[in-house]
Amino acid sequence: MSSQPENSQPEHIRDGQPGHAPAEHAADFVGIPNLWSYEFIAICAISVLAFCNISIFYGFYSYLTELGIPPAWRGPLLAMEPLTALIVRPFLGRYLTVGNSVRFMRVGMGLATLALVCYPFATAIPAIICVRVLHGMGFVTVVAGLMGTLTVFLPRHKSAQGFGLFSVTILLPYAIMPAFVEMLLPHLSSHGQAYALAAPLMLPAFLLLAPLGRRTRAMAAKLPPSHLERPGWAEVRQSFTNLGVMLLVAANFFLVAAHSIVFFFMRDFAAGIGAANPGAFFSCANAATISVRVLGGRMLDRLDKGRALFLTFLGMGVLIPLFAHAGRPAVLFSMAALYGTGMALTMPLINASMLGISPPRLKAYNANLLMVAVDAGFFVGPFLGGAIMAGDLGHAVLFGVGGTVMLCAAVCARPVARIMRKGEAGASS
């Protein structure tokens, strides 16, 4: 494939411009006509269980403080897990296909489970580094398999709604687990035990993989053989020269970097202004996000995605710095609901936009490019936030930087609407 001459590329791929797949590739987008299939429900259930073992790390910065880890090391140790994912994911993306996506999930869940069990025993910096690297390798492999499978079973005409519902499965653990862990901690000796207690959640996820694997293989048998091959380097390079793809990747990076600053450092701030349960910030934010995506999911596919992204990023860029001036928990938790509403719109719109401008054979690869941006954001955000807090610059500076990063996402999103409209006009003509 990589030796294919440029002029032999399909029209929607040529010159890296966005567009729609030709008719013969339609099955690639609509493997099943109904969104509520067994496959989609199983993917969502596995996602909930997998993200339960990440959402409990909202207090990892505090845990490192309790262990006596020097302040200069806390940010890098926070960032070690996403840094591992950032390094590993581009290589995984080249080997991920429809046929092996479930195998990816199985291996990843095994590694993540082992890492969770090891956390209580990792109390020194070298041991924490090893466990964080292992956890990063496991989690990135699980998510790569999930995204590869999801792109096959998601009907194109309901892509934004589907991504919105799928992202609810990512957010649900963040709405439940922080508050639940806060209630559990008084009965445990440390956060490390709480992390280990998440390991059994992987068992039901393993049980779901067997039937999902059979159904995925059956779907793969219906696809054109070329769709089961790994994309060639020439095709991969086209993703990096596609302006729409790169803008969406950059916007996702800035979104996640800003969000990770809020996620990892909100607990200490909320406790500092008198919140009895600091985890309630995430419960309020994610309750709003889930409500918007479930009740308004069908509307997402009708929006001008690029314009909606720009306006939402702009609003969140203004909101985040205001967290530092909340003063009282009730005010902060009200702002959390607004924050969650913004998050409800951004992630499904980014993913649906990427699906719309990607050629069939690069859908899974480009979906994982967005996840590379997630890894990079979760590395840069905690690293930057840790440096700010280690320098005693305070939460006002911290959230101010977070808001500025979110505004960078708005700058990236602004041209996306024009690029998508241009691609749709080219496809219709």
Helix/strand layout:
Layout: H1 26-29, H2 38-55, H3 60-66, H4 71-95, H5 101-118, H6 125-153, H7 159-184, H8 191-197, H9 202-222, H10 233-241, H11 243-272, H12 280-295, H13 297-300, H14 305-322, H15 329-357, H16 363-390, H17 394-413, H18 416-428
Helix pairs in contact: 2-6, 2-7, 2-9, 3-4, 4-6, 4-16, 5-6, 5-9, 6-16, 7-12, 7-15, 11-15, 11-16, 11-17, 12-15, 14-15, 14-17, 16-17
What is the structure about, briefly put?
This protein is an all-alpha fold and 429 residues long. The chain is built from 18 helices and no strands.
Structural summary, described in words:
This protein has helices at residues 26-29, 38-55, 60-66, 71-95, 101-118, 125-153, 159-184, 191-197, 202-222, 233-241, 243-272, 280-295, 297-300, 305-322, 329-357, 363-390, 394-413, 416-428. The protein is mainly α. The longest helix has 30 residues, at 243-272. It is globular, with a radius of gyration of 21 Å.
Any descriptors?
429 residues, 18 helices, single chain, mainly alpha, 0% strand, Growth Hormone, Chain: A
Count of helical stretches: 18
Low-pLDDT runs of 5+ residues are 1-31, 425-429
Please report the distance between the alpha carbons of the first and last residues: 28 Å
Q: Which CATH class is shown?
A: Mainly Alpha
Task: Please state the second-level CATH architecture.
Answer: Up-down Bundle
Which structural class do the helices and strands define?
mainly alpha
Largest sheet: none
- State which percent range the strand residues make up: under 5%
Query: Would you count the extended β strands for me?
Result: 0
Measured as a percent range, the helix fraction is over 70%
Average predicted local confidence, pLDDT: 79
For this structure, the CATH topology is Growth Hormone, Chain: A
CATH-level-4 superfamily name: MFS general substrate transporter like domains
Number of separate structural domains: 1
Q: What overall geometry do the principal axes of the alpha carbons give?
A: globular
Order of helices and strands: HHHHHHHHHHHHHHHHHH
Radius of gyration over all CA atoms, rounded: 21 Å
